[in-house]
Structure formats: C-alpha cells, structure tokens
Design a protein that fits this description.
119 residues; mainly beta; 4-stranded antiparallel beta sheet; 11 strands; 62% strand
Length: 119
Amino acid sequence: QVELVESGGGLVQAGGSLRLSCAASGSIFTFNLMGWYRQAPGKQRELVARITSEGATYYTDSVKGRFFISSDNAKMTVDLQMSSLAPEDTAVYYCYALVVLASVEYPYWGQGTQVTVSS
C-alpha cells in the first residue's frame, strides 16, 4: 500500500507564494512520475504540473513561469513552489504519483490540500 501525504496549503493574498509538499510512503520501489492536480469548486480536476523520475517536467499553460515542481527520488517527495498567486489559483491541490510495484504501474492520490488566494 502506498500513501501520499500533502502539506503546505493555506490562505495567501494575491501575489503571494506558497510551497506544497507531498511525501510518499509504503511499499514503494520506484515511481514513473509525480505531480500535482487541482480542482476548483464547480470545475473538473486539472493537471497543474508533473515531473518524471528522470526529471522531465510539464506545466499547464496558466502556471508557466509562476510554479516550479521538484522532486527527490530517494525521499519520494514532490514539491510545488507557487509564486505570483492569483485568485484563480484557488483550489484543492492533489498530489499524484504513478508508482511502479512489481513492474506494474499504479496511480495514487493524496487527500488534497486547500489553497485559497484572496484578492
């Protein structure tokens, strides 16, 4: 069993910064990618950023230049540094990992952490 635990959400004013962290634990051998999704009220969950085990990154257009994703393969952690936050970034942010167990990929999700940006 694999567990993802997020931390770092909260309330921030527009223009501010927050750092989200996610730590994976359990019977983990490796992962193919880790990332962050978000879901705002009344909207579908969307991919924000992801990083592969080789360090390749992807960002959705709306966060490019403002958010930075990083990971530590040895510690099985993934962080999301968010800067220049805007009210439209308000959402529940979910950590996601594509974990490899016995040569099979399994998706795992964290419980979510609330990010609220006030104007």
